[in-house]
Write a structure and sequence with these properties.
Structural class: alpha+beta
Helix content: 25-40%
Radius of gyration: 28 Å
Number of helices: 5
Number of strands: 7
Largest sheet: 4 strands, antiparallel
Length: 257
């Protein structure tokens, strides 16, 4: 009798814990359903907030022109793995991918990613020096990437932005006076158009955070919250099977007259 009573207490405690955890997970499941419906309703174009985005076509190199190769600059980088040339705003740009050399006297990598051993540096093909995107160049790049009917509404220096969590800056934000208040971000070190954002972005950003349980906003889809939710779901399934087996064993699924 004592053994049966002890097992009954354990199963009662397990059943109570099972129900409480299930309530928490049900709330998250409802959030997943609501945010999933929102994603489906908005569609890919709406979620990208880039309705007026225009991908800048690659400009051809002029073979007759002479470019200044940054030989000394490349030597100071360390172990250079690749170099490519492209045209940014009608100016040749050298893009070097390399493994940084941390010894004194060697240049360090801007915007170096912790997840990759490689870094990227950009050089001006007319001077051979480090590439620097001016405000005027950033404005032209932003205008060329914009297809909306709004007018240019100002440019400002930015060092970071929550709208691009992984971007470390510095750069420029170019605003346009349209129905969505479109803003275009330009990276100063490379001259790259990072993308467009508009007034719908804050809501879309929070929908992403809630759906992927990424409350930090760092776009980390393998964060501790979602891993913990997955483990709780597995535990909930196992305990549910155990309780069903116990009820079955006690004859709970047998029809009574």
């Amino acid at each position: 009798m004592i053994g049966n009573s002890s097992r009954s207490i354990k199963m009662g405690w397990l059943s109570s814990l099972h129900r409480r955890i299930a309530l928490v997970l049900v709330i998250q499941v409802i959030i997943w359903c609501v945010t999933g419906f929102y994603f489906s309703w908005q569609g890919r174009e709406g979620l990208s907030t880039q309705e007026y985005w225009h991908q800048l076509p690659a400009q051809p190199l002029h073979t007759k022109e002479r470019y200044v190769t940054p030989d000394l600059q490349l030597q100071n980088l360390g172990n250079v793995r690749s170099v490519r040339v492209r045209i940014i705003d009608n100016v040749a740009q050298f893009e070097a991918t390399y493994v940084p050399n941390n010894t004194p006297g060697h240049q360090q990598a801007p915007n170096r990613s912790k997840a990759s051993p490689y870094a990227v540096a950009w050089f001006d093909g007319e001077t051979g020096h480090r590439w620097q995107t001016s405000a005027l160049t950033a404005q032209r790049l932003a205008v060329n990437s914009y297809l909306g009917a709004g007018m240019f509404n100002g440019i400002r220096d930015v060092h970071r932005s929550d709208e691009f969590p992984h971007w470390v800056g510095p750069g420029f934000r170019v605003d346009f006076a349209d129905d969505l208040n479109t803003r275009v971000y330009i990276d100063q070190a490379s001259g790259e158009v990072l993308g467009h954002r508009n007034n719908r972005w804050p809501l879309i950003d929070w929908m992403y955070r809630l759906h992927f349980m990424d409350y930090s906003g760092k776009r980390d889809f393998n964060n501790l919250f979602i891993i913990f939710a997955g483990l709780l779901s597995v535990w909930l399934s196992i305990t549910g099977i155990l309780m069903i087996a116990r009820v079955w064993k006690q004859g709970g699924f047998v029809a009574k007259r």
